[in-house]
Prior knowledge:
Elements: H1 18-21, E1 29-33, E2 36-40, H2 46-63, E3 69-72, E4 77-79, E5 91-93, E6 97-100, E7 117-121, H3 127-141, E8 145-150, E9 155-162, E10 165-173, E11 180-182, E12 190-192, H4 193-197
Parallel strand pairs: 7-8
Antiparallel strand pairs: 1-2, 3-6, 4-5, 6-7, 8-9, 9-10, 11-12
Amino acid sequence: MTPITDISQLDFSKQYTYADYLTWQFEDCVELIKGWIYRVSPALKRKHQRIEATIFSTLFNLLEGCSYQVDSSLFDVRLKKNKGCDSEVDTIVQPDSSVFCDLSKLNDCRAIDAPDLVVEITSASTAKRDYNEKFNLYEEIGVQEYWIINPETNAVKVFSLKENRLVSLGVFCKADGFNEVQSTLFTDLIVDLEELFKD
């Protein structure tokens, strides 16, 4: 088989598996959702990078010393509802931040099961995926809490898993009178919106 050394060699009309993904030798970042390829663009905007750094450092500092793992973007999260071998897994995502309460879901290279908390920082190019494909995926796989942060509107939308459905807990935005957003999963996790969105 010819090695895949450039993303242009992939057939975007074809579905792939995690076993395929592991053989790819190019530098471009991609995710697989139900076997379909999605490009992951680097966070070039300074505001996106700052929000990502703020969320990661807040989570890391809060959970330091606990038996949890906090990961940032470009960390592979390999997902299958019923764990399978690499050739049976068709979904691999790279959330902007994620928290794992069960360390058996991790190995040295990647996560092999669903995070408990996922944070995605959305943009015009990723909004459809964050609110649709990834939302459905995270709900199906049992993510307990899902935050979508929108740098354009300075808002955080929070979803919590209730009876196997991700239910909206609201949109938290300074313009609507909110000063902070609080996790229901980690009650000590409170993020100051002014600090999160400051330039």
